[in-house]
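User: Show me a protein chain along with its predicted structure.
Assistant: Here is one chain, sequence first, then structure tokens.
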Amino acid sequence: SQLASITELQLSPGVALSGLSACPNLTTISISEPYYEESCGPLSPPPPPKLHLPTKQELTRYAFRAKQVLQADPPVRYSDLAHLPALTTLHLSLHTTLDAAELSELTTLEELTVRVPLIEHPEELAKLTALRTLSLVCDGVTDLDSLASLSKLRDFSVYGVHGGKRQTISDLAILAEATQLKVLSIDSYRGYDFSMFPLLTRLEVLNLA
């Protein structure tokens, strides 16, 4: 069919994903709110968050959009994307909390970007063992132990959306098991043990600002 030629797709939140089975060759999907589209561009991972004080109009628009997403009919199920055998890249930029368990069946993913206010059950991402790039811009990530199974990671970044004030990662030692890691970015890193970094023999870029 004509849809079989589509390999990249950008959507707004609230769109039912079950119909995407008509696009079996999709490799990249970006689901983002308009605010993030303006600053990040289509199909591009978001940059580290910058301080932004939304106007009253923006807050009203965000709240309305979040209500639309929550009331979507049929409900949005990211597990529907598991039926896309070629899917390797997923970018999510949303104004609502995300339960990582909704992504746990997307085992073909090699690149995942999540930008949300809060992520719940981030340990569920450990099931995505094919991941090579993982970027998390959200609160809710405080323990990396569950990500030990992501041994293929080459690029890993995690930023708290509140400047690290509500997000403290207590131990990075588990990253020593990610022997393929080349790029590591952790916001507000301070007061931790640096002894594990020499174990990352392939590390090329380190950002702890």
